[in-house]
Fold each of these.
Amino acid sequence: MNEPAAVTAAANGQLLQVNSFGEWRTAARELLRAGVPPEAVTWGTLDSNGSGDLFSGAPAPGGQTHSQAIPTQQAQPPKQAATVVPRSLLDMLQKAAGFRAPDRWAFLYRVLWRWQQGEHDVQSPADPDGSRLHGMAKAVRREEHDMHAYIRFRERPIEAGAPRFVAWFEPAHDVLPQVAEHFVARMGKTSWMIATPEASVLWDGATLHNTGPLMSSAADLDDAGEALWLTYYRSIFNPARVNAQLMQSHIPSRFWKNLPEGAIVPSMVSQAELGARKIGQVDTVGRKSGATIPITAEKAQPDREQPSKLDECRRCELWQYATQAVPGEGPRGSKGGAPIMVVGEQPGDQEDLAGKPFVGPAGKLLDRVFAQAEVDRKSIYLTNAVKHFKWEPKGKRRIHKTPAQREVEACHYWLEKELDAVRPKVIVAMGSTALKSVLGRSTVTLKDTLGKSVRHEGRWVVTIYHPSYVLRVPDEAARQEAFSIMVKGLKLAHELLEQPDVPGPD
């Protein structure tokens, strides 16, 4: 029985040349069945591209071309069982076959041989051969995408038997067959031709024809409609916004020479650099006479629908990092509103998790203050100037971070809603952040108002320390003094409830 041609060539130390994936598929199948290792085969380089499906029953397109030259070491061909290759590997081999490299066929056969020997890691990107295989397939897919995007068809005069549209492209890899199938599906029965330096394809509306090279460049292509396209391109080109580096990054330089607009872009970019940028701005920017009317940034903002629920608030960025918003807690409403509202800075770690104000260490100390001042916590409305926990990581813990002024101002919207709902007679501001939010002034200081009462918008405002400050004070005497100021402030707030509701200076 005669040996297959591929096996005979390998056994005789001859060059095994293939011109398409289909031919390589047939030869590789013969070599694997004969047990010929990769090092016993010398593969020839590619002359033209083809396509095929490895190990399918159909014959390879174009037949086999096994020229004889270049002796190599003698092959040892023990007979092997038929190889079963997964579809994913076959697809990748066929895709990588379009990658232009002198050793592509030898490399693909080595991958196939290793798979047959049980080295299935060869398909993994972590394997050296697998990494190269993935890289080759990726490069071919990228070239297909670029050819889809940057190929330009020129319309030709209607002639019998001639394609209506002609395009020239210079691909870096052998992707013409795949791209041709793409345009067959896209352009219907319209005839066209794509020419490259290596080969050409012609679609007559019903059949796709493959030929050798029919053109040498795009210089001879002309299109009457191209002048209209270039006129349009010039009209939309804005020299005031040109960015040459961005244009080059979006479209690789090797494609520009064959694009119609590639011939005019360099001069337009040069004109922009030499002054057209300024002229473009002057022509398009209107100038109106008249006095400039100053307006604050707040008044210049457009009217936007405000959130109706605290959990939906996106007025600042703190919501992204908190577990949940922490609303105030206590009596509210026209019949049972709290006479005293206590305002802190922001929720802490435990408040953020529980969704309730003052349930952590600061809350426990505040309970002691209420007890000393003989004030029932249930009669008080407790809330914070900022409703989301602002923190920074420290090991595995979340450490409190003071809110920025813009975050306090953003959350003042919710404090105003609470004031309207609770309608307290006295507000106790615990700490500097709460005081600034209640009074709406960023310049007010804690030391100027500590332990005192002021009138603001028809209410009394009393300032005391925040419980967390008392917890942080290292000196025992200072801690006792701060605790005492808090107790006295709560007592003062309770006493102010007895004061008549007469207007006072804000």
Note: Residues 224-278 form one domain.
Amino acid sequence: MSELDLEGLAGELADFAPAKKKQAAYTAREERIIAGFEDIVRFFEEQSRTPQHGKDRDIFERLYAVRLDRLRAQEDCRALLAELDEHGLLEQPSIGTEGKAEFDVDALASELSAVESEEDITQLRHVRSAEEKRAAEEIARRDKCHDFEKFKPLFEQVKQELASGARVTRPFELKAEIRPGAFFIVGGLITYVAEMEDIFTNAQGRTDARLRVIFDNGTESGMLMRSLQRQLHDDDAGRRITDPAPGPLFADTPEDGEAEAGTIYVLRSKSDHPFVAEHRDVVHKIGVTSGSVDARISGAEKSSTYLLAGVEVVATYKVYGVNCQKLESLLHKVFAEAQLDLSIPDRFGHMVKPREWFAIPLQVINEAVDRIRDRSIISYRYSPSDGRLERIID
């Protein structure tokens, strides 16, 4: 674990001092400024107010307040963040500054040290890095899950399967066990990984991904994969919950009183990536969602998952009584040989590899869905060389 000394803390805040002439691409300093401002925006959206100064405030709120003051004071910072400042935070005057004193790096460093340890606060070896502080905030930040009714039956089913022995708990061991559809026990709560964004490499050269994690008490968190991994390792009672024995995948029509479970969707990209543009008619993204397809693809132009471009919905298939994650995994397994190996730069120029894009004719996808419905799909795999589904020979 990296340690942040006094000079490191001062250096982090010094990022908001006047800079040299801005270059065409984001510099490391500009990336840190943007990331720091996104922390402030997230605070504003959660608290409905700007971070404020004051000894009675949380230490992180006070740090955000200092950071916001410095951003407001620098013209180059305001210019850099103008497009991201949808709430007008950089134009607002500082509020809640009663009793505000000149910013004291030593005092702030001591307080941060005290957060980590009850030992002598003059010892800075316990001060956390910026990444660790963000991770701690993510762990603590749990919001009300507004669509919990959609997930509640999953938790009830898991509890029943644990009671019947269809599922069991095991010690958590590998980061690879964290995947969409996986269940864990963290802090005494059953925890469900509902979504995972594209895997990326963080500043320390380690792989990570943003998750949507649902807890059985009706809350959720948008934590990082490594944050969940850390919680599972640090919690003596932390466990993973095994998958149950597989059963029928889905029915093609709903039974009486059975709610629709999800939608298989097929998307076509409007990206100008050379390979995608040349093969647009056969390059498709295949996924399964338990919600609205329109909501799922909202903001596609800003997400590397969708190649940072708009998408066209070319086909949808309603499914009932289905485990959406298992169905999606099955489809991706069937078409694994046709999965694209594309790398695109994100907004900071870091290369990411979007998943779930395949070079497959639409008629073959239609055939695969039909074979899923008649349960014969387990005997087939897609052959890119022949452009069709082929029966597996035992």
Note: Residues 189 and 216 are 6 Å apart (CA to CA).
Amino acid sequence: MRTELAVVGAGPAGLAASLAAAARGVHVTLIDAAEDAGGQFYRQPAAGLGARRPRALHHQWRTWERLRDGLAASTVRHLTGHHVWCVERNSASSGASGRSERSAAFGVHALLGRFQDEPVTVHADAVLLATGGYEKVLPFPGWTLPGVVTAGGAQAMLKGGLVVPGRTAVVAGTGPLLLPVATGLAAAGVQVAALVESADPKGLVRRLPALAAKLPEAAGYAARLLRHRVPFMAGHTVVEAHGEDRLEAVTVAALDPAGRVRPGTGRRIPCDTLAVGHGMLPHTDLAETLGCRVDGVNVQVDDEQRTDVPGVWAAGETTGIGGAALALAEGHIAGRSIAARLQGTAPDPREWAAAASSRTRLRQFFAAVDSVCAPPAHWIEQVTDDTVVCRCEEVRAGTVREAVHGLGAGDLRTVKLLTRAGMGWCQGRVCGPAVAGLAGCDLTPTRRPFARPVPLGVLARTDHPAEADHTTEADHTTEEGPS
């Protein structure tokens, strides 16, 4: 399968880039694992559920309608249900800045089919990575109980399945995501017993000028919280979840200015659901495999959204968590830049001046948010030795601490080798922040050859990617297993 531009990810950034590039004559193939466009932000309920007012689950609905209708009317080829596991550079080509006539610069390898065992390769002259982000998970005693979900998970259940995780919920953690989750659950009939934000209220006040752009939106959420009588507890955190077979209550406590739990402030709140979130992390697996520079946890890009690998652009959460509006601006800039470069002309930044201005403003806003809405500085002190840290391998905090203090481990890789934390199905994506916190080291990207598990039979056939465009029934005679 051949295209000029392969866009990986059909969220806000990927949609904006695809439409901008296609409008300028570029042959675009949009590749996404979901069955519908929109990503996590614009997640839609399945058609079979018969949702009568899906717009009630979203804000920025009109923006989504424009993107959806624009995609339908465009020349973009949209591949749904395609799980990209690797983007490979073709050494015979030099990317968008100097394309070879003999072959495409990149091979985008994906899996499809019910069991994700059918290989497809899209050959492209340029690639845009719009792979989004995932939630940061921090452990605490009781966090593995049924009924404890991530904040984004609760929102996804509501948006995509029209279901709620329970009848009485506590929404806790830190960051802007907590507001739409709490208001969405309350509007769906869940009794939200508390919205618990660990950020220091004084810190929010100090950064008010930088946060002013979003005050009207925040005021709207506040009004809905008041309407549903949701108690708001700022400067607090969940220290423990209680229950036998499932969640029955949580203990919430106040934090001092240093981020430590104030003794004697614990308060037990009955609930059957805890939606907890501590921010997000960018998906960078594909970028790391390509050799793109990653600074901290973000893929680094220039003013055109180009990475340091010729022919590869990145936009949206993969370059830094910043929400849908920022992703749209970055995607639009990337799409225009790619179109110009593929057509052999120098891009004119004046063409995307409005999007660049929006990008600057939103990056400044989310930098202020990050400075205020960080996890409590001493959250590790609440993690007991018998608290499970790595759920895949059932590694407890005490084992990690022993590897650090008793065996001298000082980085994630050494802890992984000594304890198996991070060796499970998620490959450390879930437990990585917790292990890094317990080990006292930075959360550094781990370069992996694959972004997701791949059947061995597929790997055996990827030596000849041109033959992997479509899989016939005979191709399944090879016995396959998990990697």
Note: The chain has a mean pLDDT of 89.
